[in-house]
Design brief:
The complex is a heterodimer of chains A (115) and B (114). Chain A is mainly beta. Helix content of chain A is 0%, strand content 55%. In chain A, a hairpin with an 8-residue loop joins β9 and β10. The termini of chain A are far apart. The termini of chain B are far apart. Chain B is 0% helix and 56% strand. Chain B has no helices and eleven strands. With 114 residues, chain B is mostly beta strands. The chains are: A mainly beta (115), B mainly beta (114). Chains A and B meet through β4 and β5 of A and β5, β9 and β10 of B.
Chain lengths: 115, 114
């Protein structure tokens, strides 16, 4: 069954530092993977998605993620954190229970950026 | 237009009230979703409509009643809710039937049951 695990419920970085948010997936078939961001009291916004076209995926706001099948990972990175990156980040996989409509989220990682 | 619009943004209702949440999109998406999100938790899927037909009901209590009047609109009718139903209710839409397509989310309705 498709699932994702986010390592670290809270990550704190200094402004200008590297951001690394970890996500590992469990899937019996090649997965469709997504990273979403949620700012306080708002809905979710797609940062990027992996659909097997390329292992290095570039998203919005300078974020990117690399799909590593050998490590079953899809970690999210950004070279230099900005204060506006402070938010909750969710990794997600589609296809749970054999349904393309079921998007299963990880528990989320709260990113704080210190000045 | 890549927006999913939800109304109202905030709702306070008593346990005996009947209210409805509304969601609208004009992206031509034929799949629409309701999610429930409690504080500091990920969204949990409640219902999925595909081509205006209920496709998935994740064993949601009958006090929540979804409706999809047409391909652009999705409602969630609420009746006799409990305080534990207080949460952020998110609507989303996507292209139908494709696992590699992303869901677009609305800003949510913050529901408080008193």
């Amino acid at each position: 069954a498709q699932s994702v695990t986010q390592l670290g419920s809270h990550v704190s970085v200094s402004e200008g530092a590297l951001v690394l948010l970890r996500c590992n997936y469990s899937s019996s078939v090649p997965p469709y993977l997504f990273w979403y961001v949620q700012y306080p009291n708002q809905g979710l916004q797609l940062l990027l998605k992996y659909t097997s076209a390329a292992t290095l995926v570039k998203g919005i706001n300078g974020f990117e993620a690399e799909f590593k099948k050998s490590e079953t990972s899809f970690h999210l990175t950004k070279p230099s954190a900005h204060m506006s990156d402070a938010a909750e980040y969710f990794c997600a996989v589609s296809g749970a229970g054999g349904s393309n409509y079921k998007l299963t989220f990880g528990k989320g990682t709260l990113l704080t950026v210190n000045p | 237009d890549t927006e999913v619009t939800q109304t109202p943004k905030h709702l306070v209702m008593g346990m005996t009230n009947k209210k409805s949440l509304k969601c609208e999109q004009h992206m031509g998406h034929r799949a629409m979703y309701w999610y429930k999100q409690k504080a500091k938790k990920p969204p949990e899927l409640m219902f999925v409509y595909s081509y205006e037909k209920l496709s998935i009901n994740e064993s949601v209590p009958s006090r929540f009643s979804p409706e999809c009047p047409n391909s652009s609109l999705l409602n969630l009718h609420l009746h006799a809710l409990q305080p534990e139903d207080s949460a952020l209710y998110l609507c989303a839409s996507s292209q139908a039937g494709q696992g590699n397509t992303e869901a677009f989310f609305g800003q949510g309705t913050r529901l408080t049951v008193v």
